[in-house]
From TrEMBL:
Binding site for Mg(2+): 777, 801
Catalysis: reaction(s): pyruvate + phosphate + ATP = phosphoenolpyruvate + AMP + diphosphate + H(+)
Protein name: Pyruvate, phosphate dikinase
Organism: Ancylomarina longa
Residue ranges constituting the Pyruvate phosphate dikinase AMP/ATP-binding domain according to the UniProt record: 22-390
CC cofactor: Mg(2+)
Similarity annotation: Belongs to the PEP-utilizing enzyme family.
One Pfam family, short name: PPDK_N
Superkingdom in the source lineage: Bacteria
Domain PEP-utilising enzyme mobile: start-end pairs: 457-536
Enzyme Commission numbers on file: 2.7.9.1
Keyword annotations: ATP-binding, Kinase, Magnesium, Metal-binding, Nucleotide-binding, Pyruvate, Transferase
Residues forming the catalytic site: 490, 863
Segments forming domain PEP-utilising enzyme C-terminal: 553-902
Length: 906
């Protein structure tokens, strides 16, 4: 059987369906599905993603030849369904079509759509005549030349210049003193069409194609080409979408929202994408085509009455003005509103998820143009999952699996401090386009946003409106402020997807490429400004922010995670305060407590420096005696904060030179403080110099050359634990030896630890349970894990070092080549962020398996950065780890990821 390249839909029938997203793209699969469930959709067809892959391999001519017959046959089917003919064809109404891209996952604004294709000097006349709406016909024609000229023929604004098409429109308007496009007459539009063709000829060096079939093939290939535009590639990289997926092409009969006052177009959501509230909402424009709503050029009206009333209240618009000038669809076209409302309910129930829909009303008839599971903020994601579970729309497993762990991060994000906000000066109020709080310096271009943020500045991107070219800059900014655009404008949709705060359509503001004015007051580049994307308020200057508390729906989500997880989550914490925070987030113990971090605080550094300077064992012991009580106190605080839960404490790990100063002044200070000659300090610092400190005298190599350090640390831990136990607490210390490569290194350290513990038990007359284990972070340790497990009671995979040593990439130097490796596709991800499952992960797997082979009940966990990264957490679950450990603020994310891993693997 030959491969099927083209799938038709229309008239309540379809060759594809919803679960064919890989082949038809999200848009195509859902267009098919909507047909199947009786939702009105204009007829058309979808060219598969496989054709895109072939296009990238074989090129244009081969692919056009391959699908030509299918496409022609499918156009005939579309003609029949819509009772129209493609091109000028005698008495028939001309069929115009849209050509739209659609990948497996939605990539908003990434791929370009061409509308009204099929228009030429003949078809426009027939349409004008048959529709009786001449102005509509010519308006559609000029839109087509503009879109096709831009998307397919590459006619666009050169850097710093105006769009040549817009210049034509501006001239016609200013010559006639028109305030808007709407005032243009048929004669004006005819002039515009003629001028547009000249613009194309001048800029593209060829005539605008008049043959509809040429137009069609040009547009289809342009969609395939757009898969490899810079911004599409960038979006894929950010969202981890493989380049191989390709995009489908959707060719669909046009329906016209710009046919006059009984026509309209809009975008709507079955629930509130910002808050999660179960309220149908959206925006529409009378007498407009789809792109008018999205581009933000005209400010759209609300679909529901309640939404419209809320809008007026936010905006300070009186009820009288609202009802007269900005009525909701519910008021303006009540019957169509009811129909749309029924469709949105049907679609949400069908897909069991919040739907983001596009619709067009053509002369009183409703057509749906798209539906997809809507993007949402972290807060909305949580609320919707909890609500839908309660409503019985989804089950618990679906609720857990649907959540994006990384999005929980947004709920942990800052909001403005109450006191700071009370005294902050409100400059303006706009639409709360994407929630959160942001404060930063004003920049006016995406490039500046990137540049400034690269050098560590926090910036707010201020634009008249945003377009897909601004994506990188939006990513780099803390928040986005736009002069124009509604809740479904590009800026709003993209910002919500990114979890960035955004305020749009702010009242009284005007933006030029280099200046911002708010109610007459000028702001320049670099001035501080603050945005509240939850209320739409814009504030002068810097406003202090705080982190929100977590309860309510968030707590319910965490309970769901708890009920469905096998692994538990610990935290990496070095202070009692961090331990406490993490415990509130649901951490069940500490996976990594780094003792050396404590050495840098206050006067402690002098004791460790004294130890480093000591010439002999006696001197070192004297210095260590000073450190003992300090360490004991630290451990006591942490063990107490994690009372009843395991606390893995790592013995001293970094090379000693990290504790000594390098500059002359600090060396002199050290000499004076410790009462030695400055030359002694210098000589010591020099002697500590290493060519490759990461592979040098560090980790257990310190403890094995200076056993007294291990002895002191073990004593501090065990004494702290005994004292707590005597007070009735339940401390559970786990002493971890770092950087083991051979079992003997561990054996010797274990000997010291156990001997010391026995002594302390005897001295105190109290005993505590404790464990001795090791970090698996040197490849040799992973490979010989069976031997090591004969001594170690637990393993904690130190995947940062394991990645460093397994790849042979110095973590501190990888910045020079990793970004290039990722760009060139040599690596898919930064292996220090996302565990390399095929390589380093295999060392982890081997370590787990070998460890269990000699000690079946060995406790297994991970403490590298990867412990808070969802795909790595899933891997840890698959190799049978007991827990993952991560920084306190990632604990909720890891808990959810752990539950998802468990549900997926069962
Ligand atoms: P995106 O993926 O950026 O949303 P779309 O392909 O959905 O792009 O289309 C862009 C705009 O064109 C949308 O507003 C959509 O409603 C409109 N549109 C697409 N196809 C048609 C059609 N057949 N008739 C009328 N409008 C259309
Ligand atoms: Mg769309
Ligand atoms: Mg390490």
């Amino acid at each position: 059987m030959s491969t099927k390249y083209v799938y038709t839909f229309g008239d309540g029938k379809a060759e594809g369906k919803a679960d064919m997203k890989n082949l038809l793209g999200g848009k195509g699969a859902n267009l098919a599905e909507m047909n199947l469930i009786g939702v009105p959709v204009p007829a058309g067809f979808t060219i598969t993603t496989e054709v895109c892959t072939e296009y990238n391999k074989q090129g244009r001519d081969a692919v056009v030849a391959m699908i030509k017959d299918n496409v022609e046959a499918s156009i005939v089917k579309t003609e029949e369904a819509m009772n129209a003919k493609f091109g000028a064809n005698g008495d028939a109404f001309p069929l115009l079509i849209s050509v739209r891209s659609g990948a497996r996952v939605s990539m908003p604004g990434m791929m370009d759509t061409v509308l009204n294709l099929g228009m030429n000097d003949e078809t426009v006349k027939i349409i004008a005549e048959k529709s009786g709406a001449e102005k509509f016909a010519y308006d559609s024609y000029r839109r087509f030349i503009q879109m096709y000229g831009g998307v397919v023929m590459g006619v666009e604004a050169e850097n710093g210049k105006h769009d040549p098409f817009e210049l034509v429109l501006d001239k016609v308007k200013s010559d006639n003193n028109y305030a808007s496009d709407a005032e243009m007459t048929v004669a004006d539009l005819k002039t515009v069409v003629a001028e547009f063709k000249k613009v194309v000829k001048e800029n593209a060096g060829q005539d605008f194609p008049t043959n509809p079939w040429d137009q069609l093939w040009g547009a289809i290939c342009a969609v395939f080409d757009s898969w490899n535009t810079e911004r599409a590639i960038l979006y894929r990289r950010m969202e981890q979408i493989p380049d191989e997926w390709g995009t489908a092409v959707n060719v669909q009969a046009m329906v016209y929202g710009n046919m006059g006052e009984t026509s309209a177009t809009g975008v709507c959501f079955s629930r509130d994408a910002a808050t999660g509230e179960d309220l149908f909402n959206g925006e529409y424009l009378i007498n407009a085509q789809g792109e008018d709503v999205v581009s933000g050029v005209r400010t759209p009206q609300e679909i529901t009455l309640i939404g419209s009333k809320r809008w007026a209240e936010r905006n300070g618009t009186s009820e009288e003005v609202r009802a007269k000038d900005f009525p909701s669809l519910e008021e303006a076209m009540p019957e169509l509103y009811n129909e749309l409302n029924a469709v949105q309910e049907k679609l949400e129930n069908h897909y069991h998820d919040m739907q983001d829909m596009e619709f067009t009303i053509q002369d009183g008839k409703l057509w749906m143009l798209q539906t997809r599971n809507g993007k949402r903020t972290g807060a909305a994601m949580v609320k919707m999952a909890v609500d839908m579970l309660a409503e019985g729309l989804i089950d618990e497993k679906t609720a857990v699996l649907r959540l994006e762990p990384n999005k929980l991060d947004e709920l942990l994000h800052p909001v403005f401090e109450k006191s700071a906000i009370a005294s902050a000066k409100v400059l303006s109020k706009g639409l709360p386009a994407s929630p959160g709080a942001a404060t930063g310096k004003i920049v006016f271009s995406a490039e500046d946003a990137e540049e400034w943020s690269d050098r560590g500045e926090k910036v707010i991107l201020v634009r008249r409106e945003t377009s897909p070219e601004d994506l990188k800059g939006m990513y780099a900014a803390e928040g986005i402020l736009t002069e124009r655009g509604g809740m479904t404008s590009h800026a709003a949709v993209v910002a919500r997807g990114m979890g960035k705060c955004c305020v749009s359509s702010a009242a009284g503001i005007s933006v030029t490429p280099s200046a911002l004015k708010i109610n007459g007051v000028a702001f320049k580049e670099g001035d501080f400004i603050s945005l509240n994307g939850t209320t739409g308020e814009v504030y002068e200057g810097k406003v202090a922010t705080i982190t929100p508390t977590l309860d309510g729906d968030f707590g319910k989500i965490m309970d769901l995670a708890e009920n469905n997880t096998r692994m538990y989550v610990r935290t990496n914490a070095d202070t009692p305060a961090d331990a406490k925070t993490a415990r509130e987030f649901g951490a069940k113990g500490i996976g990594l407590c780094r003792t050396e971090h404590m050495f840098f605080e206050g006067e402690r550094i002098w004791a460790i420096r004294e130890m480093i300077l000591a010439e002999d064992l006696e001197g070192r012991k004297a210095a260590l005696d000073k450190l003992l009580p300090i360490q004991r106190q630290d451990f006591s605080g942490i063990l107490e904060a994690m009372d009843g839960l395991g606390v893995t404490i790592r013995l001293l790990d970094p090379p000693l030179h990290e504790f000594t100063p390098n500059d002359a002044a600090s060396q002199a200070e050290m000499a004076e403080k410790l009462g030695v000659d400055v030359e002694v300090v210098k000589a010591k610092v020099e002697s500590l110099h290493e060519f490759n400190p990461m592979l040098g005298h560090r980790g257990c190599r310190l403890g094995n050359t200076y056993p007294e350090i291990t002895e002191m640390q073990a004593r501090a831990i065990i004494e702290a634990a005994c004292d707590l136990k005597a007070k009735g607490l339940d401390p559970k210390p786990e002493i971890m030896v770092p950087l083991i490569g051979t079992v003997k290194e561990l054996k010797m350290q274990e000997g010291i630890i156990r001997e010391t513990a026995a002594k302390v038990f005897e001295e105190k007359g109290v005993k505590v349970d404790y464990m001795v284990g090791t970090m698996i972070e040197i490849p040799r340790a992973a490979v010989t894990a069976d031997e090591i497990a004969e001594v170690a009671e637990f393993f904690s995979f130190g995947t940062n070092d394991l990645t460093q040593m397994g790849f042979g990439y110095s973590r501190d130097d990888a910045g020079k080549f990793l970004p290039i490796y990722i760009r060139k596709g040599i690596l898919k991800n930064d292996p220090f962020q996302v565990l390399d499952q095929d390589g380093i992960g295999q060392l982890v797997r081997m370590g787990c398996e070998k460890g269990k082979s000699t000690r079946p009940n060995i406790k297994l966990g991970i403490c590298g950065e990867h412990g808070g990264e969802p795909s790595s957490v899933e891997f840890c679950n698959s190799v049978g780890m007991d827990y993952v450990s991560c920084s306190p603020f990632r604990v909720p994310i890891a808990r959810l990821a752990a539950a998802q891993a468990n549900l997926k693997q069962n």
